[in-house]
Amino acid sequence: MLKLCYRSVVETGTDEAGRGCLAGPVTAAAIILPPKFSNNILNDSKQLSENKRARLRPILEKEAVSYSVCHVFQEEIDEINILNASFLAMHRAIDKLEPRPSFIIVDGNRFKPYPNIEHECIVKGDGKYMSIAAASVLAKTYRDEYMAKIHEEFPMYNWKKNKGYPTKEHREAILKHGLTKYHRKSFRQLPDQLTLDI
User: Measured between alpha carbons, how far is 168 from 165 in angstroms, rounded to an integer?
Assistant: First the structure.
């Protein structure tokens, strides 16, 4: 059973999706849920089917006090690295919340402090607190939607299915077709091949 609040304040949960992908943005969401919010389906987005995530998204958007979703794209990821890009996406999502939260709970064990707002990192927080789980659902659904859109431009990579993650199919497509403008050039796109120096 997920808990609603970590503290009894105006609290936002934040989470990201797409950190381990080879292509596309890292996407973060931040959400403030109302004090009496309840939902029996809500859980860590990775534990939910695509259908359940799709059903939850309009409920969360309608019932949230405030929510925001932000993409940080591959060019910026390549400039500042994926960890910093993840923090940046979460900060930008929090920037847009109204009212301004007085406390932030973050999934994971690392976060770059947000100016003038306290935060707490919670390992596996998306399976413990509703606002983090809700943020994980929003981040995942918005990112998946974006990857399905760019799939139309480069269908040979099958991003509609693999969402840019390093699947065997995705790596084989990179080997065959090369990199696109959506690939993260700072990432190791293909595993190192064994070579024999003679």
Answer: 9
Is the link from the previous residue into 101 a cis peptide, with omega within 30 of 0? no
CATH match for 11-146 among 3.20.20.140, 3.30.230.70, 3.30.420.10, 1.20.1640.10: 3.30.420.10
- Is 107 marked as binding a ligand? yes
Which residue has 């389906």 as its token pair? 41
Least confident of 15-19, 39-43, 119-123: 39-43
Please state the pTM of the whole predicted model. 0.92
**CA-wise closest residue to 184 among 7, 8, 26:** 26
Two tokens, residue 134: 């809700």
Element (H, E) at 56: helix 50-63
Asked if residue 144 belongs to a known ligand binding site, the reply is no
Q: Predicted confidence band at 198 (pLDDT cuts at 50, 70, 90)?
A: very low
Domain ranges (residues) in the chain? 11-146
